[in-house]
Design brief:
Order of helices and strands: HHHHHHHHHHHHHEEE
Helix content: 55-70%
Number of domains: 3
Radius of gyration: 23 Å
Strand order of the largest sheet: 1-2-3
Structural class: mainly alpha
């Protein structure tokens, strides 16, 4: 029974890969994509957009700078993810699965909410002169946003200790610094945090593959011998040798 279940999961995964690949190819060829599930469309749109942005960056910066700044390696990561060819990214992904296997993972949207909220709690501690995590969590729990999402005081006060994923911690650190630098007071810090979360949630919709593949104007900066920017010119992504 277990073997049949595992075989079924592998077959479903291969089918999902095929669907995403078809969507990506259709978008890159400017063809109408076939009907597909939201998850496949979201992933395909992400691949298409990342491919377009990285390729455009390589084109504008030139091979030497692109290699030094990691753009060429970004292309390799994307290509490896879509082909299965050997790359250190697989070691990293396997390590992530092993590292966090013991604990059930919340949806990504929930992790973002936790990161922003932990940042706000820590910012409140600084803005309000070292108040406790408990007091900061209590203040947030009274806000309608958290009530509407069913996030209680008991839950909020545990999030700072339980947030452990490095990307989430980095996000929390950036947002905390933003709040400490710009929020007028504790109320403003909470308002900014809730507004940011509502903006993220409002943008959570199935993307358009055609939009992801659309070439947008690119700009190159012209500098003098000292490195001072003297001009900015538009570059046609389809004809990088031509400037506007």
């Amino acid at each position: 029974m277990a073997a049949r279940d595992e075989a079924g999961r592998k077959a479903d995964a291969r089918t999902f890969v095929d669907r995403v690949d078809v969507l990506v190819s259709a978008a890159l060829r400017r063809e109408a994509p076939p009907p597909a599930a939201d998850d496949a469309i979201r992933l395909a749109a992400a691949f298409v957009l990342l491919d377009r942005l990285v390729s455009q960056y390589v084109m504008l910066s030139g091979p030497a700078i692109a290699a030094e700044e990691g753009a060429v390696e970004a292309q390799r990561v994307l290509f490896s993810l879509r082909t299965g060819y050997n790359h250190p990214v697989w070691t990293y992904l396997n390590g992530i699965r092993t590292k966090y296997r013991a604990s059930a993972k919340a949806p990504l949207e929930e992790l973002q909410r936790r990161a922003y909220t932990v940042a706000c709690i820590r910012a409140l501690q600084k803005i309000n002169g070292g108040i406790s995590i408990r007091a900061a969590a209590k203040a947030l729990s009274a806000r309608d946003y958290y009530r509407s999402h069913g996030v209680t005081f008991a839950t909020l006060r545990k999030w700072p200790e339980r947030l452990q994923e490095p990307p989430a911690l980095d996000l929390a650190d950036r947002w905390q610094r933003e709040l400490v630098a710009n929020a007028r007071d504790a109320d403003d810090a909470m308002r900014r945090t809730i507004t940011a979360l509502q903006t993220i949630e409002a943008a959570d919709r199935t993307p358009s593959l055609a939009a992801a593949a659309r070439q947008r104007p690119a700009y190159a900066k012209v500098v003098d011998a000292s490195g001072r920017i003297v001009a900015e010119v538009e570059v046609d992504p389809r004809n990088p040798g031509k400037v506007e």
